[in-house]
Amino acid sequence: MIAVLGSANLDLVVTVERAPGRGETVTGRTFATLPGGKGANQALAAARAGGDVAFLGAVGDDDFGRRIRELLADAGVDVSGLAVSDQPTGTAHITVDGTGDNSIVVVPGANGTVTALTDAHRATIDRAELLLLQLELPLDLVVEAARYAHAREIPVVLTPAPAVPLPEELLEAVDILVPNEHEAALLAGIDDPIAAAEQLTRLCDDVVVTLGARGAAWLSGGETIPVPAFPVQAVDTTAAGDTFVGVMAAGLAGGLQLGGALHRASAAAALSVQRPGASSSMPDRAEIDAFLAE
Ligand code: ADP
Prior knowledge:
By secondary structure, the protein is of the alpha/beta class. The protein is built from 10 helices and 13 strands. A 9-stranded mixed beta sheet has the order 5-4-1-8-9-10-11-12-13, with helices on both faces. A 4-stranded mixed beta sheet has the order 3-2-6-7. Helix 1 (38-48) crosses helix 8 (240-253). InterPro entries: PfkB_dom, Ribo/fructo_kinase, Ribokinase, Ribokinase-like.
């Protein structure tokens, strides 16, 4: 089982020809409300890809929260560890421009109330083959969870997003770090993403730096292994990274080595960027298999 301890948000998504500059107003094209949050996205991507997933986090006692719970449960995710908080469900305010690039403001809400591991969290992590973490819950909790799992030899996968400087004690408890190029640069203090990832392998065994349409690079034991992207026409890259990580985790839990899991992750992310939205764009296992068989 894959345990995901992370955020659940409702994404409020606007599409525009060109994102507004400071002080500027532009007319949007479309507006939609879509379930998201990096934690929920990764849980959903892993479950759609065939993983057995338990989600740990919190939503508000509101329609947004009920919608997210239902979506996860319908995908087969165990939501018994999804608490109901007195704060509203977290929201992410996303602008997608005409080229498919996005900019995002996150308001944590209920996610901010998950401040310490509970006995129920520990019991789920104890049973997990893999723990997925991101940085949309309070940092102290992420550190506590990583260290708890690491001490029990449960592999920890961290998506260091949104990017903030991280304590070494967190990175030392992470087995697979999956930054995008901006996050890798910020964490290592080096602009070049490959050099930055190389630096980060001093603290984490495996570092997979994602490079958007250029694919990803897996750094391990002094080697740099390219993970090619699939050439596709991107319309919305929201949650490409979360799809990538969720599908990678499903592959690992299903018995693949990391290289094989990354190949599937790249295929799944390529499928997801061809469709709008976060959760709505994630492929299922059959679709990934069919794409890889083409
Ligand atoms: P994030 O969404 O976290 O910023 P990236 O943009 O690096 O992450 O994308 C994650 C992965 O998604 C990439 O490593 C790649 O496999 C895939 N991907 C992203 N953009 C494209 C694209 N335009 N075409 C094909 N694959 C893509």
